[in-house]
């Protein structure tokens, strides 16, 4: 695609995150098979889930299913509850387990568990989600490391639309440590001029209207309206919220007012079917990369996003 321009777009291209995610998982599967032939072993993904959050259970099921589809061994550790010391002991054990290439601790954790302490306990070399401070530091210093799955998936989607991002204006709405901040760092590493908006920002539309590339991860349904978007921009909607509508019933929506924004954007991700499947696919890619790294073969996809 050509660089996003100021020309009005007749209707945005729909970015098919599900289709791309399927292709990535198929590539991971081929990589796993190849690794098995050469090393006699396959990657292993350990998933740790604490508590009964229904959304977390759905996400974990989806991740485990995709891992099996990709030929990755899975190790499930589910607890109704566990104290922090118990969780840290489990992570220590998984860090030492040679069958485990990647560890994922599903968030959110219960309030009595210190999330930072737990995420920091995961070995940076098994950090499938890229949340360890060492990997976050690597991302922020533009050094190779594990990139968090959602931002990595967003960047992949964006680069299919705009192969070179150098010099473009980008805006990220949302500044969480798992989506917004790493997304901003990735775009900066690609040569974008990046603005980051959050709930205390005074004039969000002024930031977003300049953006050739707009990523929204605020968790606020329908936050971004048509007149917030530069004509022709690539719009990536990370938001996932369940809303109940008297006519349409219960459904999942994003942070972008899709029907109106698609009239002005150049390309847009749907919700569902956009970023969500890419997040899961990138978890598989990160797990394979960690396996290859442990097998002394690092150099596959993990470094791709560092451009
Ligand atoms: P979070 O609550 O940790 O952070 C939200 C961020 O958005 C904060 O920085 C906050 O300041 C900002 N924000 C909140 N309200 C705002 C407003 N009105 N205007 C501007 N900024 C505002 O959330 P998160 O974990 O980063 O997730 C964000 C959204 O993305 C959620 O809907 C979540 O479910 C979704 N999500 C989707 C995927 C996926 O795979 N598609 C992955 C992770 C998160």
3D structure, described in words:
The protein is α/β, with parallel strands linked by helices and 307 residues long. The chain has two domains: 40-125, Rossmann fold (3-Layer(aba) Sandwich); 147-276, NAD(P)-binding Rossmann-like Domain (Rossmann fold), CATH 3.40.50.720. Helix content is 39%, strand content 16%. The chain has ten helices and eleven strands. The strands form three sheets. It has a six-stranded parallel β-sheet with strand order 1-11-8-7-5-6. The relative contact order is 0.18. Residues 5-9 and 299-307 have low confidence and may be disordered. The structure holds nicotinamide-adenine-dinucleotide (NAD). The site of nicotinamide-adenine-dinucleotide (NAD) has 24 residues, from helix 10.
The shape is globular
User: How many discrete structural domains?
Assistant: 2
Number of helices: 10
Briefly note the structural class of the backbone: alpha/beta
Distance between the termini: 18 Å
* Total beta-strand segments: 11
Strand proportion: 15-25%
Q: What is the succession of H and E elements?
A: EHEHEHEHHHEHEHEEEEHEH
Ligand names: nicotinamide-adenine-dinucleotide
Main sheet, how many strands, which sense, barrel? 6 strands, parallel
Spatial arrangement of strands, main beta sheet: 1-11-8-7-5-6
User: Which parts are unreliable, with pLDDT below 50 for 5 consecutive residues or more?
Assistant: 5-9, 299-307
CATH architect. name of the largest domain: 3-Layer(aba) Sandwich
